[in-house]
Amino acid sequence: MAIASITERLEILADAAKYDASCASSGTAKRHSRDGKGIGSTQGMGICHAYAPDGRCISLLKVLLTNHCIFDCHYCVNRKSSNVRRARFTPKEVVDLTLSFYRRNYIEGLFLSSGIVKSSSHTMEQMIEVARSLREDHGFRGYIHLKTIPEADPALIEQAGLWADRVSINVELPTDAGLARLAPDKDSQQIEGAIGRIGDAIVEAKDARTRFRHAPRFAPAGQSTQMIVGADDANDSQIIGRANRLYDRYRLRRVYYSAFSPIPDASAVLPLKRPPLMREHRLYQSDWLIRFYGFSVTEVQQAADEGGMLPLDIDPKLAWALRHREDFPVDVNRGSREMLLRVPGLGTRAVDAILRARRHQRLRLDDLGRLTRSVTKLRPFVTTADWRPTLLIDRLDLRHRLAPPRQMELFG
Amino acid sequence: MNRPLARAADVYSLLLDRPDDFEGWREQARAMAAACVPPERVTWSLAAEGERDLFAQSSDEGMALPPARRAVRANAAFLRLAGSVILHRDPARFALLYRLLWRLQDDRQLMDKTSDPDLHRLGLMAGQVRRDIHKMRAFVRFRVAVEADGRDRYVAWFEPDHHIVRANADFFLNRFASQRWSILTPELCLHWDGGELLEAGGADPKDAPREDATEDLWQRYYASIFNPARLKVAMMVKEMPRRYWKNLPEARLIPDLIAGAQAREVAMVAQGSDPFSRAPPATLAEIAEGIVACRACPIGCNGTRAVAGEGPDDARLMIVGEQPGDSEEREGRPFVGPAGAVLDHHLNDVGIDRSRARVTNAVKHFKFEPRGKRRLHQSPTAGEIDHCRWWLDAERRLVRPNLVLALGASAGRALLGRTPSIAKERGTLTTLPDGSHLLLTAHPSYLLRLDGEARAKEEQRFRDDLAQLAPLVAGRF
Fold first, then answer.
1. Single residue among B54, B89, B124 that ends a domain in this structure
2. Chains A, B: CB pairs < 8 Å
3. Is A19's CB within 8 Å of B227's CB?
4. Is the peptide bond before B275 cis (omega within 30 degrees of 0)?
5. Domain containing B23: what range?
6. pLDDT averaged over chain B?
7. What is the pLDDT of residues A78-88, one digit of tens each?
8. Fewer CB in 10 Å around end: N or C, chain B?
């Protein structure tokens, strides 16, 4: 068979990579190439160089090294039994592609993943070679994210962390039973074992750097993972619980959720319909509540209904507030930071601005209007020097008044 | 305290060299505030603009700045804010900042009063500037031009909203110091040749290269990484506003991608989704009818006769083969051809009564390749087996066998959901999720393909596997 052109292969291998949600390029060590050696820089903040019509940020060149795979995971478009077109890149081709995109300022760096050819360790070696060549042969100082393969030799996974800014291993499914059913070749213990080893290596490297200034960095942007939502029957409550255990146990930077989407040549074991995209969004919001708003897991789970699902028409913070009306309204001029953070419509920055401003004056409703995006959503939940929501908080139709008008979901 | 000046009628018209001249503003603002000149008696303009209040004294005509009457204070928060706001395109920015500086002299806490209208307005302006700086870093697109000495120069055309180009130079130096680059904008151009950063006046879009071969590759990447199953155009436009599109090569594709998305998703679903969206059949007769009409995979569409399972509807043993063969398809019954004869022979040998077992196949239609007058058997693909599994699952739910004998890897896949290795996994009894027991062995047609000693050896192994089953079957009948 003739080898397809680089363009055709890029199409195949980028297409196959799009089911990974993460494209973050943030949170790594600061680097630059001001000295004229090598190329590239990173800062604390990532940059999204483009946005696709699916609303996702394009920050990195996200490709697979190959979409040949010896595994047969039902949810994956690249599984052995799928009839998709196959292609592969050599490590050098990926390196050249990355550099030519980077030099034109299309991308922040590379996100490399791969199907598994020959063996897990062989595949991992090839991926590491790409990262090594970029760093050593070309002095590349941009961002590198390597999706590591949990079944590979632990020594190789450790090597990946030395070249990459971020490493990630997908836990794939929120429940072990789901993994056993949909990914028969994978093993949740092995996955979590590998995540745990990377977590330990990150902590050790950080510790070493506090004592030795030139100790090598290990995945300075930490590790992340991804869960597919809606491919098995796990509910939101279970998913939030699992994510939180992962955060706690392995100090992950991020848990990404990917709403299961129909894939070409899908396996018959999968559900018929994709979950609403809004479900993925609500899970991210609940993730935020736990990480930045001081909510506990059980509190977020209280926002879910009896079936453990978060409401789709309103955000989880509003859902929680509607179930805890006795805690509202909160006095903007006296309420604690913790309580202000629980007011629907107040973000962390607005809360900080309120705390600063109220040291000097009693805040009125129009002050609040300048400190936040909109007071309409806030009004039932706060009191200010000139505002008190007498009856609003007790109104039964409050949910209806605050929920946005329902729209037909596109292509249901 | 701000005290009125002695000469109350004076208006000071102050000049700045460049739109982003922070140092010039800072110096003059400090002098004005030190002399207690109130904001309403100060006007600001750019030297190049030539506009000036005719009756005002101006700073470039050797105007004597009024003597300082107090020390001026500004905290770090103010300087940070001013450094950003000065880059804003709003001509009122200099006066607004001076008014804030003026008020700051009387109110030390002003910078903390985040709800103050002046501070709020300047905060918004600083935010717009920060966003523009960020968007420039994101949306500058270089095209390669070859210079006289044969080396590449990376040239970009960009149109910022605010006066941010100079402030952003460091970012591009930190990133691209090892390549020659130029950023052309309507107001100011930056050129880097590896040694020194040169500034030049505004340029025209025509000064930048018209194309770059790599853009085609980038566009293909952009189109491929987009998932048509999740269209969120509003989100994209919010982060990548339309005014930037004309200078982004990939943005040319957006209208077509959006228009094609729905069609692509429908195609993806049609190609990939489970066609079995109705309720599973409730009787074995329904299965027999259903498989005749099933067109869920290419085998179902090849015009052959579907072959249903046969045997008692409460059989304790279910025997699962791969698919009907040539004879089976003609007769419409499973395992009646040569392989069926081999199976019957060995079942007899170990004392299993075939008529009391349910005999069926993983795939219900015959997949073949025409070769002259003959129809040559072809193995079903994993995807086809997975599709047809829906029928087998239904049959198992209805018959509820205690024991399942899977013949060959295809049958194994239909029961396990993965393709097992017959060599490694044959002959051991395992438990399926529904509690029934599975024994895996070779397919009898495999025996037919062997000769002599090899065949005798394999037949013995086959018989041994079946022999394991015999007491279990007998015990329960």
1. B124
2. 221
3. yes
4. no
5. 12-124
6. 86
7. 888 777 788 99
8. N
